Amino acid sequence: MPIIHAEIWKGRSQETRKKLAAALTATVAEHIGCPPQAVTVIIDEIPKESWFQGGKDCEELFPGVG
User: Fold this and answer.
1) For 52, how many CA atoms within 13 A lie in the half-sphere containing its CB?
2) pTM
3) CATH of the domain at 14
4) What is the domain range of residue 25?
């Protein structure tokens, strides 16, 4: 069944990741009509210095955030 890949900045708490996974699971299950147990959520954490927008790393663009 559905597999959801989410990429976020590294450093979020386990509680935050669990809440994100639960929200994504509920939304997908509701919208496609499958049981929540059929939804897989994979969260990849990327360091801000490895995430770029407009050629600049997000550590530089968003200091102190995340």
Assistant:
1) 4
2) 0.86
3) 3.30.429.10
4) 1-43
What pLDDT, on a 0 to 100 scale, did the predictor assign at position 55? 95
Q: What angle do CA 59, 65, 15 make, to 5 degrees?
A: 120
Cβ–Cβ < 8 Å for 2, 32: yes
Evaluate whether residue 53 is within a structural domain. no
Q: Provide the domain count of the chain.
A: 1
Residues marked active site are found at 2
For residue 33, the model assigns a pLDDT of: 97
Q: What is the pLDDT of residues 14-31, one digit of tens each?
A: 999 999 999 999 999 999
Q: Is residue 29 part of a domain?
A: yes
Encode 19-58: b = buried (16+ Cβ within 10 Å), e = exposed: ebbeebbeebbeeeeeeeeebebebeeeebeebeeeeeeb
